[in-house]
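Quick check before the chapter quiz. The format below is the same one you will see on the exam, so make sure you can read both the input and the output lines.
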Amino acid sequence: MSTPPKEVPKEAPKEQSGAKAQDLLADPAGSEPPQAEEEEEEEEGECGFCLFMKGGGCRDAFIGWEKCVQEAETNDDDLLEKCAHVTAALKQCMDAHSDYYEPLLRAEKLAEEQAIVELEKENVNSQQDQK
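Here is the expected output.
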């Protein structure tokens, strides 16, 4: 006579740890200090560019520039005129911290070079049209 095969349990026995699964999922890395939670909440709605700018040595200069831009937009002021001084200060700060801001500085330089090429093309085309 053959003996029936042993039954294999379909589920592994559950541990009785006292912690609920949702508690473990809600904070898998452990509890964050209150200050870190506040900073995270503050930064949730911010764009990647803003987070990058605030992550370097020009955080304060960027925040000043950001406030100026918001004020200019709110008051329908000329952005270039109103914020020229803070824009220059931000650019100077970025140049001083070029190790961090190098990708943006490089992109800015490339955009400037491309704009010059486009202007030169337009100038040549306009001169040819006059002939």
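If your answer matched, good. Residues 50-130 form one domain.
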